[in-house]
Amino acid sequence: MEATRPSGGPNVISVTSDGPYEEFSLGNEPPPEAPRREAAARTRSSRTVPCPSCGAENPAHNRHCQECGARLQQGPLPTAPRPAVQATAGVRAALGISGLLFLVILVALFFNLINGGDEVGAETTIDATATTSETTPDPAPIQILTAECTPEGIGAFSCSNLYSGTEAEYQVDWEELEAAEQSVTIRLLFSEPMIVTQIVWGNITDDTRFLQNFRARGLTINAQGSLSPVIEELEDLPGKQNVSYAALNANWIEIKVESAYRAQVVNDNVYGELAIDEITVIGRPANPVTNTTSGG
Fold first, then answer.
1. What's the pLDDT band for 86 if we cut at 50, 70, 90?
2. CA torsion, points 288, 289, 290, 295, in degrees to nearest 10?
């Protein structure tokens, strides 16, 4: 290949070979840059992105629609970091109290260990526990607190003999009371309200003395809280006999002797007194009995 200077001018170099040659000049100015930039701008501006909200065409480099302001890029939005978990005032107070209690327990254990070490072999006291229960006792003879009788009685044959548990009797002049059309009234008082279930009447047990005295026959029985008195007739027999009677929550019971069996002459002896050996009232407390049992 041979380089020749063509006739076109001093700044033109011509390269020849076996084929045609290409000619160029060193003195020519390069093409201007402005047209190229305008062409690139036109190329970029020709690329548009439709708005997914209103459909308006927007340049591809826009992030938001220039018509409605909607986002053109659908990638994930940046998210703010999650805030740290904060405890409420109540939780903080509960935590503070728990910590304080734990500290107090630790201090108490510490002092207990210190004091306990100096008391080797100390006795341990266990408080006894008490258990209470209510029971209903079976009917039994009621304790009579006192007795009031009209008339009171003759000498040592007084009203208190009716519940003394001795062989002494209660006697009154029946012939005198009968003439005055009066009766004998006996009121027995209890130490607490009772449920009365029965009365046990006691006559003289000796057959001879039993017949020689007047014996109670017609009774009128009343008690505290009773709606109406009850009339009973005793049998003419020595010793004890049961009389059916019931009363609730009674502090006393009252018995009136309205009539009597006549006294009889036995071994040429007869007496004008009415004799009663003993009166027993059967029942149980109106209030349940409370029992206390201790256990260790």
1. low
2. -140
CB burial of residue 178 (10 Å; 0-12, 13-18, 19+) = middle
Two tokens at 137?
């006792």
Q: Which residue has the higher pLDDT, 137 or 233?
A: 233
Phi then psi dihedrals of residue 207, to 5 deg: -60, -40
Q: Is the pLDDT of residue 12 over 80?
A: no
Contact 146, 189 (CB under 8 A): yes
Backbone φ and ψ of 103, nearest 5°: -65, -40
Identify the helix (H) or strand (E) that includes residue 184.
strand 184-202
* Rounded CA separation 70/61 (Å): 14
Dist CA 159 CA 278 (whole Å): 10
H/E element holding 274? strand 273-276
Domains of the chain: 140-285 (2.60.120.260)
Among residues 159, 154, 215, which one has the least CA distance to residue 185?
159
d(CA 150, CA 184): 6
Take residue 296 and report the two structure tokens written for it: 């260790």
CB contact at 8 A, 60 and 51: no
CA–CA separation, 240 and 56 (whole Å): 125
E-strand stretches of 137-183:
140-141, 144-150, 153-154, 157-158, 170-173
Query: What does the CA dihedral 112, 113, 118, 124 come to, rounded to 10 degrees?
Result: 60
Handedness of CA 198, 199, 202, 203 (dihedral sign): negative
% of residues, the chain, pLDDT over 70: 70
Q: What is the pLDDT of residue 232?
A: 96
Q: Which two tokens stand for residue 121?
A: 């072999």
In whole angstroms, what separates CA 97 from the centre of its chain?
28
- Integer Cα distance of 188 and 190 in angstroms: 7
Once rounded to an integer, what is the mean pLDDT over residues 50-74?
82
